[in-house]
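SAMPLE LOG
Freezer: B-3
Tube label: C17
Construct: single chain, 250 aa
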Amino acid sequence: MTTLQGRVALITGAQQGIGRAIAEAAGREGASVVVQYLDDRDAAEQVGDAVESFGSEARVVQGDVGLRSDCMKAFQVGQELGGIDLLVNNAGIFPRSSFLDLDDDEWNQVQNINVVGGFRCLQIMARELVQAGKPGTAVNLSSVAFFRNSARGTHYAASKGAIVGFTRSVSTELAPHAIRVNAIAPGIVDTAQPRDGMTEEEINAASDLVPLGAMATPDEIADVAMFLSSEASRHITGQTLQVNGGTNFS
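STRUCTURE (predicted):
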């Protein structure tokens, strides 16, 4: 399939997990892909190689979305491919801490990366697209943590709720410019992230509670991101799709 032929995608936090699956899916669908990673160049290069195996172009760039300069660098690399018009704000952190132990620094770090990082990247892309008179799409990664509770994750749940509100509001402002903005709120996904702070027993118990019988795979989240980035969703903007196997509902 080549539903994204001619598009140029930036996937943040693409060295592993959901970000990796989305980057590879975008390449499979015909997009050129900027693979942005934080600290594992070898893993990111493997993602770039996978993108290229589909016949798509790839660029690998190190960056921290907590820094505007690093966000700008990713878009500068995107210009080599024709300019980014497809953004997936996937980068995020979840340092588990009890509410009583949280300090200002950790709270601010989570908000800066999970929320403000996405704001930076989307603002940079939107400014470029509006100036050029081109359409585009953005997908933000929220979480089931906002719609349910999140043990030892008050800061994380707050950041993922902010993404829902950000997505709704910015979609209205950008709609006249033919830039669509949506979000995905995954439930538990089979990646390294839930294993940072949860035992395998806890993960298996959470998976057993999913009505469809299992936690999601990264590829299942990537498929939704492809839908929201493609013409198949051309009349959808401002929405947050929950992808959780039926554990809760919008």
